[in-house]
Amino acid sequence: MAAGWQDVVRDAAAVRDAAAVAVDAALLAGGLMRTGEQAHASDVVNYAPFTLLPSAVPRALFEQAYAVQQDFNLLVDAVSQNKEFLEQTLASTIKVDDFTARLFRIYMQVLEEGLAQTVFLGINRSDYMFDCGQDGTAALRQIEINTIAASFAGLTSRTADVHRLVLKVLGKTEEASQLLPNNPAKGLALGIAKAWELYGSQRAVVMFLVEDVQRNIFDQRCVENELWNRNIRVVRKRFRDVFEQGSLDASRRLYVDGQEVAVVYYREGYVPQVYNQQNWEARLLLERSRAVKCPDIATQLAGTKKVQQELSRPGTLEKLLPGHPEAVARIRATFAGLYSLDQGEEGDRIAATAIADPDCFVLKPQREGGGNNLYGEELREVLKKIKDSPERTSYILMDKIKPQPAPNYLLRTHTPLQVSECISELGIFGVYVRQGRELVLNQAVGHLLRTKAIEHADGGVAAGVAVLDTPYLV
Ligand code: ADP
Ligand code: MG
User: Fold this and answer.
1) Is 149 annotated as a binding residue?
2) 341 and 326 in one domain?
3) Any residues with Cβ below 6 Å from ligand 1, and which?
4) CATH code assigned at 391
5) N or C: which end of the chain has fewer CB within 10 A?
6) Angstrom distance (rounded) from CA 404 to CA 204
7) Interatomic CA distance for residues 211 and 458, integer angstroms
8) Torsion sign over Cα 419, 425, 426, 430
9) CB 268 within 8 A of CB 274
């Protein structure tokens, strides 16, 4: 590996000592998660899984990812305001995908009523892998952009200190001093605070819309505590609480349990399983309200896989961001090949290509949260089965990114210490706030590196596959 950990990676005694230091440091630093067994309370907690060693990341690609983030913020915001584009792009998807269809129906309903919301807050995370070309050079390739509930801004701020200590323990003091500081949770709070301020009511609270099972609560607390530091009140509610205690007044101000809500920050609501009839009603109530939703439903739709695929068509970015040719070029430079499976000749052709050569592609349904994509033989079987049915339009195809693996140790509870060949995914957090038509804040606020063993094609940290990491720029 280019970072030069070769000498320590195979030194079993040094690795064992460093791992013990690392785990205690992670616990001390607050890199925490609730356990699966006690997911409803914080009496018993564990460390969030992480790598023993920071992973090498090419400096130029890291800088490229930061440099394009404001462009992506601009793009997501533009898509969210473009009814015609969303309508056209999602038309085929909503015919076959019930979840996207229901979100879309709420979107149309709130537009017809007229938006009460005037301040808009976007918190997104653009994820990348480093594609290794034939000649060995690496290129930055976007995996996806997450526009709802993008997590780990809090916990990732804890990992650099841990890795700094580990490198010192391993005798790499000089390398330790090069790890970058990183606190995206502060940046998320900055955006939420700005939106709260522009909403303009001192009494109003920020509401975190949270899951029933909150294993990743400490990640969210990092953002919450930054808001409390600014003397902004935070409450945590579930969809069910909103259904039972939520209401709108005549000017569509949102009240939950008697408190006016300025900002709704969703850490829930992106998978179909959470929505029963009551939760759909709660979602509609929130969307109709004047409160700043992060994201509003249009921005959630802007983050769908189908939108991502349409953005890669020649000419689309130019139409969405007129007058921004440089931003368009920077964005396009990060795109991997993306292909529509809509009915017709174009879809037939790419389906046949993917069936013939499944290892070059990933088959993606319109879902978030990891573990949904299909690869290799499974991709071939599914695509063969659906290639002549309308069902295929609920998927997109993407070129498979092939990063160069590097050895590392994945530290997780109750797991023996062993070296794994690993690949990493870099995420950049972006935050923006718009008031009416004016963008008043647009920033890249930090990064997240997640690393997994190569035998896992899919899945994130929450899914128990990837672990937290720190980039070591080379
Ligand atoms: P989700 O919304 O479920 O997070 P992603 O598009 O991020 O969907 O895919 C989940 C995971 O699958 C990613 O974190 C990555 O590990 C893997 N993956 C996704 N797209 C590709 C690709 N084009 N090439 C290689 N791996 C991919
Ligand atoms: Mg993802």
Assistant:
1) yes
2) no
3) 127, 143-144, 336, 362, 364, 368-370, 372-373, 398-401, 425, 458, 460
4) 3.30.1490.50
5) C
6) 49
7) 22
8) negative
9) yes
Q: Tell me the best of 124, 132, 144, 271 to mutate to test the pocket of ligand 1, counting ligand atoms within 8 Å of each CB and taking the most.
A: 144
Q: Which of 132, 276, 258, 120 is nearest to 194 (CA)?
A: 120
Beta-strand relationship, 361-365 and 406-411: unpaired
- pLDDT above 80 (res 460): no
- The ligand minimizing its distance to the Cα of 369 is 1
CA distance 432 to 77: 9
- Ligand nearest the Cα of residue 463 is 1
**Contact (CB, 8 A) for 222 and 186:** no
Kindly tell me if the per-residue pLDDT of 3 is higher than 70: no
Q: Is residue 297 part of a domain?
A: yes
Q: How far apart are CA 320 and CA 75, in angstroms?
A: 7
Domain total for the chain? 2
Question: Do residues 129 and 401 lie in contact, with contact meaning Cβ atoms separated by under 8 Å?
Answer: yes
What does the block give as tokens for 338? Answer: 């993306």
Q: Ligand 1, from 99, 124, 373, 467: best to mutate by most atoms within 8 Å of Cβ?
A: 373
Looking at the CA of 338, which ligand is closest?
A: 1
Query: What's the gap in Å between 288 CA and the centre of ligand 2?
Result: 28
Kindly state whether residues 361 and 389 are assigned to the same domain. yes
Task: Quote the ligand 1 centre to 88 CA distance (angstroms).
Answer: 25
Give the pLDDT score at 145.
98
The residue range of the domain holding 114 is 56-153+180-335+423-473
- Residues known to be catalytic: 125, 144, 146, 151, 305, 364, 368-369, 450
Residue 99 CA to residue 109 CA, distance in Å, equals: 16
Full-model pTM: 0.97
Q: Which residues contact 166 (CB under 8 A, 6 or more apart)?
A: 18, 21, 22, 25, 52, 53
- Give the Cα separation of 289 and 287 in Å (integer): 5
Q: How far is CA 101 from each of CA 91, 184, 304, 334, 401, rounded to the nearest angstrom?
A: 9, 33, 12, 29, 30
Which H helix or E strand runs over 106? helix 98-113
Q: What is the pLDDT of residues 332-362, one digit of tens each?
A: 999 999 999 999 999 999 999 999 999 999 9
Residue 317 is encoded by which pair of tokens? 């970015």
Number of neighbouring beta carbons within 10 Å of residue 177 = 10
